[in-house]
Structure formats: C-alpha cells, structure tokens
Amino acid sequence: MPEHFKRISAEEFADLDCDEVTLLDLREEYEFERDGIEGSINLPMDRIGTRLSEVPKDKPVIVYCKIGLWSEAIAEVLADRGYDAATLEGGYNRYLGLMYGM
C-alpha cells in the first residue's frame, strides 16, 4: 500500500517558511528546550496520544524527530486523520548536519 505522507530533505526543510507550515518536534522536552526551532510545537512521543488535538489542520504539518524513524510513523497517523503531513528524512540530526556542515 502506498504511503500517503510526504518525505522532505534537510535542504527542503531548511527552506521552509514557518508561517506556512506547522513544525511538529517529537524530541524530548529537554532537547527541544536546548535547540528547538522557534514556532514549532514540541510533542514528545510519550505524550502524543493525549495531545494530538493541539496540532492544527489548517496548514501542512512537517514532523521530525532525532533520526527520522518515529516521525514517519506519526506522519502516517496524521495523514490517516486528514492532515497534510510530511516527515523530515534523516530527522533533526540530518538538518543540523546540513546547517553546521557536519
């Protein structure tokens, strides 16, 4: 069965206009506090079941975690619930690698 969510690269992620998308950060709260992206929603995996309603449906949702595994599962759940969802390939670590040349 084909997936119904998108995958975006770190380069595409870096070029996003945060006013046009919702960024959903699945990392732990301490990670988000250390280096979260301004304007993103922090929704750690252990809280997603009770707080999913906090994710707005009015614009695309880009989901990311540390390495990209959990974000794929959550992007699929969101897509199943009617969201325009995408996941960041390689997760936040790949994005940081791009930004800092690592």
What's the SSE blueprint?
Elements: E1 6-8, H1 10-14, E2 22-25, H2 29-35, E3 41-42, H3 48-51, E4 61-64, H4 69-80, E5 85-88, H5 91-100
Parallel strand pairs: 1-5, 2-3, 2-4, 4-5
Could you walk me through the main structural features you see in this protein, from its secondary elements to its overall organization?
This protein is an alpha/beta fold. The model has no long low-confidence stretch (mean pLDDT 93). It has helices at residues 10-14, 29-35, 48-51, 69-80, 91-100, and strands at 6-8, 22-25, 41-42, 61-64, 85-88. It is globular. It has one domain (6-100): 3-Layer(aba) Sandwich (Oxidized Rhodanese, domain 1), CATH 3.40.250. The longest helix has 12 residues, at 69-80. β4 (61-64), α4 (69-80) and β5 form a beta-alpha-beta unit. The protein has a five-stranded parallel beta sheet with strand order 1-5-4-2-3. The N and C termini lie far apart (35 Å).
Short description:
By secondary structure, this protein is an alpha/beta fold. Helices cover 37% and strands 17% of the residues.
Spatial strand arrangement across the major sheet: 1-5-4-2-3
Secondary structure: helix percent: 25-40%
Total discrete domains: 1
CATH superfamily assignment? Rhodanese-like domain
* H/E element order: EHEHEHEHEH
Give the end-to-end Cα distance, rounded to a whole number of Å: 35 Å
CATH architectural designation: 3-Layer(aba) Sandwich
What portion of the residues fall into strands of 2 or more residues?
Answer: 15-25%
Q: CATH topology, which one?
A: Oxidized Rhodanese, domain 1
Mean pLDDT: 93
Number of E-type strands: 5
What is the number of helices? 5
Under CATH at level 1, the class stands as Alpha Beta
Low-confidence stretches: none
| Gyration radius from CA atoms, angstroms | 13 Å
For the biggest sheet, the summary is:
5 strands, parallel
Helices and strands: which structural class? alpha/beta
The geometry reads as globular
